[in-house]
Design goal:
Elements (H helix, E strand, L loop, with lengths): L4 E5 L6 H9 L17 E7 L2 E7 L10 H16 L2 E7 L4 H13 L3 E6 L7 H4 L10 E3 L8 H11 L13 E6 L6 H9 L17 E7 L2 E7 L9 H15 L3 E7 L6 H12 L3 E7 L11 H11 L8 E3 L10 H13 L5 H14 L4 E2 L2 E2 L1 E9 L4 E7 L6 H15 L7 E6 L4
Parallel strand pairs: 1-3, 1-4, 4-5, 5-6, 7-9, 7-10, 10-11, 11-12, 16-17
Antiparallel strand pairs: 2-3, 8-9, 13-14, 15-16
Helix pairs in contact: 11-12
């Protein structure tokens, strides 16, 4: 049974993202005084009084907008409302013609709705909020999302009106995938093509996606969560800085990072930084080379390009590559097979006897080097956990195992057990004998 979904709707800059952040207990949505900052749908799982639900932040609704970007944002908000079990329609205490037009549209669509009047910071302003009765959407609830005033009362009223089960899915063991890359490499286009629907705002303007957008889906009987992220920029100012923080957060809470690069552009320091970040957080990693349809015949093949990148950056030696075109759909569905493979590799467990067989053979072939007159003695090893794989080495003089020898042991495990696309965490512990 699914969780109820609550969508926050309203015109731009009425405080939807501020309320979203307060409900979620974090600053997941980008908040700024510039109207129109939130462009896509952003999801968070909330608990209140032992009831769970999913809240969705949306871009501002603009009725009859002729601007291409704003029309697309409005479309996303309407989709979110259609997916929701309850709509929180947010306005300010001073009504505008836009509020009335949106309210009329909500009444016509017959969404279950709660009317929320935001930025009512003082009790003496509560009377001003009562004019919202004229919108025909029921009793207005006066709150201040910024200070938290009356938000608890609003949540109590919301929980009373939510159905026991809703359109959201319980996700206890989903595989989380974040789509990462520099601005304008086609991340949102890739996600749209993969999911087969216009789930995210796509535009030719670099940097269109500013928040990290979660989309659940099913594949081969497994639950997945796909996150489209804002591009990581070299210069991080204002909104782009906060979007970059969201991207880092998305990487940290994902299981697999799908790093998308442009076939027409070189593998840059920025790409390397993103890949390194995935490694540092022990996430699965796949590199997708997008816009392959623009590569002319006779240019370097995919194998040559992959080889050149791995020669320049040897730490990517275990990472799978795939060429694709989000525009034409070339090999986009094949990405799912790669993701499934890396997820399986990340969850793989090796018997302790097998781990020690490989390590004993490796140590016999090349013993640990002498460091400062001391040689480490590796007694035995075991895989402590999976997702991500963690291997524990019990040693005497563990602090004298140098980093290059740790890499040698890591590569020995990879030659035997592969772990394609998966960083291995190697922990060396001191073990006293006797």
């Amino acid at each position: 049974m699914g969780l109820p979904i609550v969508a926050i709707l309203g015109r731009p800059n009425v405080g939807k993202s501020t309320l979203f952040n307060r409900l979620g207990g974090s600053n997941r949505a980008v908040v700024d005084e510039i109207p129109g900052v939130t462009r896509d749908r952003n999801y968070a799982k909330i608990r209140w009084n032992d009831r769970g639900f999913i809240v969705v932040d949306t871009g501002g609704l603009v009725i009859d907008s002729k601007e291409k970007m704003q029309f697309s944002i409005t479309k996303q908000a309407e989709i979110a409302a259609g997916e929701a079990d309850m709509v929180l329609f947010m306005i300010e205490k001073t009504l505008t013609p836009e509020d009335s037009a949106i309210a009329k549209k909500i009444r016509k669509a017959a969404f279950p709705v709660m009317l929320v009047v935001n930025k009512v910071d003082k009790g003496r302003d509560d009377l001003d909020a009562l004019q919202a009765w004229e919108l025909g959407l029921g009793e207005p609830l006066a709150i201040s999302a910024k200070s938290g005033r009356n938000v608890g009362d609003m949540m109590d009223a919301l929980i009373e009106r939510l159905p026991e089960h809703g359109k959201g899915e319980e996700a206890h063991s989903e595989i989380r995938v974040s789509v990462i890359g520099k601005p304008n490499v086609g991340k949102s286009s890739f996600v749209n093509r993969l999911l087969g629907e216009e789930k995210l705002v796509v535009d030719d303007i670099p940097g269109t996606t500013r928040d990290a957008i979660d989309t659940p889906f099913k594949y081969n009987g497994k639950q997945w969560l796909l996150t489209d992220t804002a591009g990581l920029l070299r210069k991080q100012h204002g909104l782009d800085f906060y979007s970059s923080l969201r991207t880092v957060s998305a990487i940290k809470r994902s299981d697999i990072v799908f790093l998308l690069i442009d076939a027409a552009q070189p593998f840059t320091t920025q790409d390397k930084r993103i890949a390194g970040m995935a490694m540092d957080f022990y996430k699965g990693l796949i590199i997708g080379i997008n816009k392959w349809d623009l590569v002319e015949a006779g240019d370097k093949t995919a194998a040559h390009l992959e080889r050149d990148i791995k020669l320049a950056d040897p730490f990517l030696g275990f990472v799978p590559f795939i060429t694709l075109s989000a525009l034409t759909g070339l090999r986009v569905r094949k990405v799912l097979e790669k993701l499934e493979m890396v997820a399986a590799e990340r969850g793989k467990r090796i018997e302790t006897s097998e781990v020690n067989r490989v390590i004993e053979k490796a140590v016999s072939r090349i013993p640990p080097p002498i460091v400062m007159g001391k040689r480490a003695n590796i007694l035995f090893a075991t895989q402590e956990r999976a997702d991500p794989p963690v291997f524990i080495f019990f040693c005497r003089e563990a602090k004298f195992v140098p980093s290059h020898y740790k890499r040698y042991l890591t590569n020995s495990l990879r030659r035997e057990f592969v772990f394609e696309g998966v960083p291995l965490k190697m922990v060396f512990r001191e073990r006293r004998v006797g």
